[in-house]
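Researcher: Batch entry, complex prediction.
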Amino acid sequence: MKVVGARIPRYDGVAHVTGRTTYVDDVRIPGTLWVKALRSPVHHAAITKLDTRPAEEMPGVSAVITWEDVPHLVYGPLEALGIPADEPLLAKDEVRYKGQPIALVAARDEATAAEAVSRIEIEFDERPALFDVRQAFDADCPVIHQEGNWYTHFEDDMDRRQIRKGDIAWAFENADTIVQGVYRPAAIEHAPIETQVCQVVPEPSGRLTIYSCTQALYFSMGVVAAHLQVPLNKLKVVGGTTGGGFGGKVDTATETMCCLLAMKSGRPVKWRWTREEEFLCSSTRAPWHMEIADAVTKDGWILGRKMLTLHDAGAYSRFSPYGLTKHSFHHTGAYTIPNLEFDGYVVYTNRVPTTAMRGFGVTSVSFAVETHMSRVADVLGLDPIEIRLKNANRVGDTSPNGVVYTDPSTVPTIQTIAEAIGHELPADYRTMTSEQRSGEWLPEHLVAQLGNPEDH
Amino acid sequence: MNVTVNGVTHEIEGGPLTPLLDVLREELGITGPKAGCHQGSCGACTVLVDGEPRRACLIPSVYAEGKEITTVEGLGTPEDLSAIQEAFIHHYAAQCGFCTSGMMVAAKAYIDRGGTDDPEAIQEALGGHMCRCTGYAKIIEAVSAAARGDSFDLTTTAVGKYTTMTTGGAE
Amino acid sequence: MATASLSAATDVVVPGSADEAIAAFGDGDDVLVVGGGTIVVPEMTYGRLRPGKALMLARTGLDGIERNGSRTTVGAATPLEELTGLPAPLGPCAANVADVEIRSQATVGGNICAGEGHEAPRGDLQGAFLALGATVRSAGEGGIVEEPLEEFLPKRRHRLLLSVSYDEPAAGAFAGLDRPHTHDYTALAVSGARATDGTLRLAATGAGWWGVRLPSAEAAADDPVAAGEAALSDVDPQDDALASAWYRAKVLPVLVRTVLDELKGAA
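Model: Structure tokens for the complex:
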């Protein structure tokens, strides 16, 4: 191997340090129009009037688009994974989050575009809004989504991700103590230093050249093609240079609108979000509400776990069902818990739709599971590292969704950490390995969950 | 109104209240300084004004009149890199690169006014610059190395504080 | 040009002296005073400020710190960075603002006269100068006036601040909530000073929309714990982008105690 393990300078290092790297906003095409958006100022409302003519008639304005200009208005980025489309590219008849784009203007300069947006006549009939996922299940809760307040399209039309394993009732009857915890990580804004930005050039050949900051070039290309109802070879996407994304630049949030404006005006257009738009209107990592109840013995075995997760998807699905699915597989963390009752819901609220961010789905459950582990140790008066080693997964153990572990590294990882921080372990914990359970590490209640790694 | 940028004097048409950042990027096509926030909060737009680091997005162009502006393009070219640029390459201090221009301009000013390789002094001097990619450690190492006057082998990257791999360069 | 100035309609005036600035300011009607521009340029960029006239102070000679015996006078166009080496409360208060690039451009006048922010209070120096018992010299309707800062603050958006003066105190102290770098305002800070005649002044910024004295805390100053609690009746903290009113109410007594302890220690 020539490169793995070698210290190679970045291929784009010289360009970065000399200011030569061309980000989307650095592309210079003569005649480019500036784009500004009319965004919903309210959280949840019916649109009772929308008149873009005052903007269209303004000198210096080349094109205005609304939902009527979109050939295929509602397209879901993960339709191929079975997540039905639910979000219109531009709002039609209603808005479901503050900041939702309703109309876009392309004009000769930023000031003209902003003025034109302010001239669009729009009226709303406000509706009650939902922000707390816990209230989504109340009978008197406002209905947010066309199909109700939570996603109902998991396999077999299940309205939740459900994992059942072993005998949870036995675990809770035989526990010495039940340890409960509620974990609510907040939304996180990706805040890349480069805001969302896109430039589209209509070519004389009829193709569209799209300069995009997307993290997922071919993926975004597919989304654009679907909305525009054009073959892929009509689009030429120039990407690969992103000023930070972290998951926030996979939503294809600008490209299709810019294509429509370029087509309608016949001119190149550029849409660069302000930092305020980036903070207020761009998608975030989701907030989560997680409740864990562990049935534990006084010597630190976790007999069973009940868990309820409410994932806040914001106003539309986007990638949330996928995130929750990953989350569910990891709800025991690096530990073997034989009796499980997990239910996870994707809940809709009137917030900006949530999206991917660095390990989304799993970071939330890792946080909750590890914090809870420490809480269990605390309640039982046991060492927090020893309790983790005791319950750590080993060869032959099974995961929540029935996968047999063939080569887990939990035990040596925790032992290495203990040594690195100078935490002394008793002899039997020091000599513990990842090998199939036996002896003191194989209590009766873990026998039934053992699987054969060869079968896997 | 005249503004001198990287040694070249330009007559600009933008209004007196137009931020210098927009004059540079939109009128003069000098795109090294970046538009991260247009409110002085991120540091991606920092340029040198008569050798002093300032946020270009906060300077009304009338205040730039008669001044010597230096952008990242003026620090060095691919054929003739300055020490701070070499330091950033060798110490892997740029990932997406969007904050890099502002960071290096501020670092150069810090070193020019006698800044040392002390990490705390570097953090104070570059305190107005945000990076969402690197976690800052390698940026501070790069500035530290440049302040020390290290020379840099650009065919490989430095062994950093957290590097465990000891092989260097491709075979 | 792609980004035509959003304030293309504004008349920009760049006076070359203090007298020219005062004349151009007139009675201040629809005039935006621009010191360094760090606060108002983004406001104009985002279209929130569209003044008829912008008065740029960079070339008026209104910068500089003068000392006359124990009396110090700071010109309105003095950059904040020039104050950072001064004793407490003013020095650490100025050093706590943003970062060196912002401080080198931002001016004392711009900071004192800052209007309420879009989502946050501003004007960190108001607290330090209130604690120093400072007076302000300003121009505008009715001519040039010198008055205590407390009386100037409610009118600050309608006057042209020329300079601020104070007597060196016997002791000073500053305690502020730790702030992230870059262009952020202190969520909460307390300044204190004991004048040479023994008068104690305490002031807080971030506990309301502009800096205020803490007379109840001053009256109870012999018992810093009691003074900290008493300070709560002098303020009306708001929820804003930086912190909640609840949080400010929790931290204010701690900052008051810290300042009083430091002043006692310097006795």
